[in-house]
User: Fold this.
Amino acid sequence: MQQVGSEGVPLVEFEEACLGEVFFHDRHAIVRALKGKRVIFPVRDGVAWRVFPQMPENRRFERDDETAVEQCLRVLAPHMRGLTRIVRARGGVADREGRRREAEATGQIVTLVMRHVGKGLDLDEIRTALEDTFTAEAVETLTRRQPILKVGSSLVSLPKRPKRAPRIANGLLPHDKIVALVKKARPKGITKTLLHKAYQPRIPMAEFDVLLADLTGAGFIDTATMKVSHKGRPALVCVHPEFSMPNVVNGRAMIH
Assistant:
């Protein structure tokens, strides 16, 4: 930092010069630690960062004129270089740790790209720029794991992750807890045996049968005795009223 003048240095250049041997996912924590100890003074202006040897009087600095794609490529550059190092270190051997690092790196890159796309960047333009700018091995790994970034891909958005079913709160009353567990099972329903195992704290089956009878009689749950597989005896299946009863595999469903 003694060699850095009052104009500072781009954060990417600082990381490459001082943290080149550090895995890029760990660099952010190191930069924060150095900032906390007042060894360096990173300053942000928009999406760009510069590192100063001391806090500058003017915290806004001039940036070279650059297009939106050039700005995105500058942000992606350290991540793409890190991906290149991961691929080369793997040496063609698809070991577990190498695959994990590849997945982590490519996930970070596609997240950054889609963030810029959300701000108006053309996805086709950045796909072409990635191939023209970075190493073929890094781009091949990136597009294999993230097909949305492949030139000519018809994908325009990331698939949404399925939402996890909400956890059932322990503070619910017994009847409400059973209804919540049955609703969580959605259209396929849940057998009485599995429902009893999921109910916490455990209670005797005889007491549990009384709760089920109350809920069924009041119309809070529907039940049917049916075969749930080609083997084994019929089971009592519980389904929330907002869903229809599942199809019977063998035999006729008898609604209680």
The mean pLDDT is 80.
